[in-house]
Design brief:
Helices cover 2% and strands 46% of the residues. It has 170 residues and is mostly beta strands. It has one domain. The strands form 2 sheets. Strands 1, 2, 3, 4, 7, 8, 9 and 10 form an 8-stranded antiparallel sheet that branches. A two-stranded antiparallel sheet has the order 5-6. β1 and β2 form a beta hairpin.
Amino acid sequence: MPDNILLGEGVFTILSSSGATPVDLLCRGGGEFRVDREFRRVVADGDRGAVVGRIRKVGEEPHLVLNSLELPTADLAHLFSGTAMTTANSTAWTPLADLTTSHYLAAVYFTGEQMDGTGCVITIFNAVNLEPISLPFADKSEVVPKIDFLGCYTSSDRTTPPWSVAFTTS
């Protein structure tokens, strides 16, 4: 049914762990929601393939990837984990020796909709960008870095996957 088609346009939003105002980002080239999942087959002698009931999920890691057309100076440290903004004599973006808990964002989400107007919100929790910092420069074009947020489990809940997809009617 065409009403169930999920449209590709929407808004990416980051929410810092400090509860700061959410930041909506303009993108070029879209983005992607991906859950890397690992399964293990429990194999017994005589099996000729996978057996129902003997496949275990080992783990999964959710990603929300965006190609950000905007690089708001105040939010660079949120977009690129392990960095900080300093304002001694001038504003500078600097690397840090290690990650701190402040580098994990409370949530990163994509808000879109289906053809019938049903809203769709894809959220990853405890998000951190562990990818290399890359600012691609091209003649007659803008810098559009790929930012790959990884959803992380918490030490107090290592079994609930840190992602959700919600469909809303309003």
